[in-house]
Amino acid sequence: MGTYRQTVVDLDASAQEAVGWGSRGRDWLESEGFIRPVPWREGVVHLAGPRWRGAVDLVSWDWRARIEELEEEPGDEVRVVTGRTAFFAGQADPSSAICPHCRSVTADWPGAAIDTWYTTGAADLDCPACAQRTPLPAWEWTGDSFAFAHLGFEFDDWPPLHPQFTAAFAQALGHRIRVVTGKI
Ligand SMILES: [Zn+2]
């Protein structure tokens, strides 16, 4: 079965900002009622809050969420991931990089640049179509299947997040986001 993971990735938070911006994002989610803190062992986890329905697209989800009285809530916690991370959609079709300048799709897998980015935190990728050299995190991916960033909010086994919710979340963060979705 696997886990259906949707990660709202903050594309702009730097390595230094990630922890602070992660708290800021979590505080917003909590104050809006989308998540709630629940004591767990020595710490706290964040599960769906009283207004979780406002974050998701109920129409495309299954019948359970449309029953208002039902206590049913999305399955798993919302986690804040910080640090240099290649956020990956999971078992999707093979994805290709899209040049942010000319929108050409590059068939070659940029393995070397990804390795370099993982090791050093910086890597550039040449576009074979327009010859522009662009930092790896600025590239887009078919199916939004990747994001190279330092901060992400993982929603595990939630219904599809609503575009209005993710837009409001981006506004609260004051950063660009990308939603990376897939089975892991
Ligand atoms: Zn290009």
Describe this structure in words.
The protein has 184 residues and is of the alpha+beta class. The protein contains 3 helices and 11 strands; from the N terminus they run βαβββββαββββαβ. It has helices at residues 18-31, 111-120, 163-173, and strands at residues 4-10, 35-40, 43-48, 78-88, 97-98, 105-106, 124-126, 133-135, 140-141, 146-156, 177-183. The protein is globular. The mean pLDDT is 90. It binds zinc ion. Zinc ion is lined by residues 99, 101-102, 104, 127, 129-130, 132.
What is the CA-atom radius of gyration, in angstroms? 17 Å
Average predicted local confidence, pLDDT: 90
Please state the overall shape, judged from the principal axes of the Cα atoms.
Answer: globular
Major sheet: order of its strands?
Answer: 4-10-1-11
C-alpha end-to-end distance: 9 Å
Tell me the structural class: alpha+beta
Count the DSSP helices: 3
Bound molecules: zinc ion
**Count of structural domains:** 2
Which ranges are low-confidence, i.e. pLDDT below 50, for 5 or more consecutive residues? none
| Percent strand | 25-35%
